[in-house]
Amino acid sequence: MMPPWCFVCHKTLRDVEGDRPIDHFTYVYFADYHSEPGVEGSGVGAEWFCAEHAALGEAREHMPYRTALDEIRAATK
Ligand SMILES: [Zn+2]
Predict the structure, then answer these.
(1) Considering the entire predicted model, what is its pTM?
(2) CA 39 to chain centre
(3) pLDDT tens for residues 14-72?
(4) Do 19 and 30 contact (CB within 8 A), yes or no?
(5) Which residues contact 36 (CB under 8 A, 6 or more apart)?
(6) Looking at 1-77, which runs of residues are DSSP E strands?
(7) What's the 41 CA to ligand 1 centre distance in angstroms?
(8) I want to staple 50 with a disulfide (CB 3.0 to 4.6 A). Which of 6, 21, 23, 76 is the partner?
(9) pLDDT of 28
(10) How far apart are CA 41 and CA 27, in angstroms?
């Protein structure tokens, strides 16, 4: 798994205040998510979102990765 890095605003753990910055991020798995069995961090089709943008990802979990991200890009331009 990649370290948290918001797909929309590019916020990382270092940009977040508080004791548990990881709580500020959500890893969203899209409909066509897959990974190599047993290979850590090999997943394709998932993306990090910060608390501010998590809803954009979560609302599109049922969509294929590319479609979802194209929509989010269009919605946040
Ligand atoms: Zn964000």
Answers:
(1) 0.87
(2) 19
(3) 999 999 999 999 999 999 998 878 776 667 899 999 999 999 999 999 999 999 999 99
(4) no
(5) 42
(6) 25-34, 44-50
(7) 21
(8) 6
(9) 95
(10) 12
For residue 25, report the distance from its CA to the centre of ligand 1, in Å.
9
- Expressed in angstroms and rounded, the spacing between residue 68 Cα and the centre of ligand 1 is 15
Q: Residue 1 — very low, low, confident or very high, per pLDDT cuts 50/70/90?
A: low
pLDDT band at 3 (very low <50, low <70, confident <90, very high): confident
**Ligand 1 center–CA 20 separation, angstroms:** 17
Domain residue extents for the chain: 13-76
- If you measure from the C-alpha of residue 39 to the centroid of ligand 1, how many angstroms do you get, rounded to a whole number? 27
Distance 52 CA to ligand 1 centre (A): 5
Distance 53 CA to ligand 1 centre (A): 5
Say how many Å lie between the CA of residue 77 and the centre of ligand 1. Answer: 13
